[in-house]
User: Fold this.
Amino acid sequence: MLQLDLVAKGYLSEIFVSFQGEGLYVGRRHLFLRLAGCHLRCAYCDTPGSLERGTTCVVHDHTGVSRQVDNPLSPTEAMAHALPILEAAGGLDGVAVTGGEPLLQADFLAELLADARWPRPRLLETSGTLLDKLTAVLPVVDVVSMDIKLPSNTGEAAYWETHERFLAAAGDKAYVKILLDNDTAEDELVRAAKLVRRAARSAPVFLQPITTSSGRIDLQPANLQRFFLAARRHVEDIRVLPQTHKFMGVQ
Assistant:
């Protein structure tokens, strides 16, 4: 029984409402569930506070007032904290599950998102590295935002085969983000583009310039143009989009 109780609970970092700043639904107003814990340590990570699981989760209501609640939370408890925000916020365009890496808590997430009261679409943001965890969650999400991690700017190992199998498994629910800076290796970007063409040819691909902690985009225009053209030779639906929420000064 103890083991079942542990599986049924999860660690969150934040619950809040904001405008989606990245990817396919940029500009839409979402409820964000930020799960805590990540197995990666990407050099450009912009949410370091969510890398480790903490004893508390911060709940921001729709007016910006914040309070702390204890971790871990059961799916019922998480919904109880989110539901007043959903009811009061109005005009929400979906729920975005982010992290950290949400799939580290796949069983909890699958049970959590099975609740019909969550708005749609239900968007999962993931590193695309935990293929064995995707199966449990895929039936309860509508869209999968998958990163392709390029070793030249993450400082992490390569995940080419895993990324390809993950993207193929996500199928028509997926779109792809590839983060770029001046240190990005063009051959890695081309390899990523070819991967998308093989695994999910129609998936939109977003090239996302990395924003530094000071708010500066670390990518020269000439490099951006070169990277776009290199990827465009292999992917038809490719777009350049920075993290717009950082320019707006919102979460």
